[in-house]
Amino acid sequence: MPRQNGFRHQSYPTQPSVPPVVLQLDGDAVQSLDFGHLHTQFGVQKVLLVHGTFAGDDPFGIHAMMRAGAESLPATARLAANPVIDRLSEQTKRLTDTITADVANYSNGYRKRFQTLVGNDPEVSRLEPTWSSENNHIARAGLAVRLLNELVELQAEGFDPAHERVLLWGHSHAGNGFAILSNLLANDQASVEAFFEAAGDSLGPAGDVARRALAASPTPHPMANATYVVTFGTPVRYGWDTDGLRSLVHVIHHRSLKDDEDSAAIIPAVTFGCEGNSLGDNFTAATSGVADVLSAKHGDWVQAFAIAGTDIAPPLKRKVNARLGEFLERGLPEATPHKLKEKLKVTCARWKTRTRLHADGRNLLVDYESSQLTRFGPARQAVLGHGIYTLKDWLPSQLALVLQWLEEDGP
Questions:
Q1: N or C end of the chain, less CB within 10 A?
Q2: Residues 78 and 60: beta-carbon distance below 8 Å
Q3: Which of 181, 172, 182 is nearest to 231 (CA)?
Q4: How many whole angstroms separate alpha carbon 359 and alpha carbon 11?
Q5: CA separation (Å) from 26 to 29, 169, 327?
């Protein structure tokens, strides 16, 4: 993991700091383990579960647009409109939880099982209130400053970062919110100021609070020493800073078709819609490729696909989002264009690098030995291979795996 990363983006392809670990996970093998070690051995006082994109209360920015529109209303109408919008946001999250349950989303049942496994300590909670889950830079930066403020508040309440720990447990793009957080906690003053300048007022009051807290804190922030991070199916995007974390583990659903571990991370190039790989160009090859994606033949397709260039610009603050994107994508040889045709060309070139592994932290390439069925079909194939991580039946095996690698990697 690099020190003093300064918000620089990961490259395509990456050069992992340590070789990946390829393994198979059996959901029935660890039911009797003592998970109290998370507290007694690693000092974890709090576990925070954070869902990924499209699982929050405003996945497409519609409620944010409604709130902006309400600001132009007379005061009486505005006071009446805002509670309605708040209820719509709550209902959106409630509906998402009802439809998805624990597929690609951390359900309350998942949280309860986690708490049962670890006992009274640590406290396990979901991020409440949730984050918008929009697929853009502003939303993920907003998640990062929100988490920073919660960590700062935790320390103010008496948490001792020299001896106590927090575990951030995130699915999909929540992990990229964690990546931004690691750069904030590293607290290089110049790059942190540049980050907030790029974000402008898009982060709202929470951004102002975070900015002041970091300006008044040492470098790195004391809570960096206390923060363990585990990601599940996080696409390779923003760079990580070793000064902002204590430990970093990535769990990636991956199915290798070769015995050679050196090639185990190789996945087919994701090039659908790119020049020379459309249905019209080669029907047989293209339809076969689509079938491989739908069946998650090589594991988590979303993790491989959702790299730089696949965001959805917010309905509001497009210019600020683009400016923030330019800052967060420093380190890529070519910026992401705004026009669709040019954007697709650049993104296709990135897909062809077949990037599966993060440059920083420990990459665990996991083949889930599962015949389980979900409401969306076989667990391995749910949400194109992206939904299996959050199934509560897999939690004991995943927690045992995380404990193993936290111990293996050390502080």
A1: C
A2: no
A3: 172
A4: 8
A5: 6, 20, 41
User: 360-403 pLDDT, tens per residue?
Assistant: 999 999 999 888 888 888 988 999 999 999 999 999 999 999 99
Q: How confident is the model at residue 228 (pLDDT cuts 50, 70, 90)?
A: very high
| CA distance linking residue 1 with residue 245, whole number of Å | 10
Backbone angles phi, psi at 397, to 5 degrees: -65, -40
Check: CB of residue 49 under 8 Å from CB of residue 102.
no
Neighbours of 242 (CB within 10 A): 20
Looking at the predicted structure, is the pLDDT value of residue 39 above 80? yes
Question: Measuring CA to CA, which residue among 169, 171, 137 is closest to residue 61?
Answer: 137
Residue 386 phi, psi dihedral angles, 5° rounding: -100, -5
With beta carbons less than 8 A apart as the criterion, state whether 110 and 392 touch. yes
> Alpha-carbon torsion 238, 241, 242, 247, what sign?
negative
User: Is the pLDDT score of 281 beyond 90?
Assistant: no
Structure tokens at 273: 């819609």
Q: Tell me the pLDDT tens digit for each residue of 49-103.
A: 999 998 888 888 888 888 888 788 888 877 878 888 888 888 888 888 899 889 9
Mean pLDDT of 263-290: 62
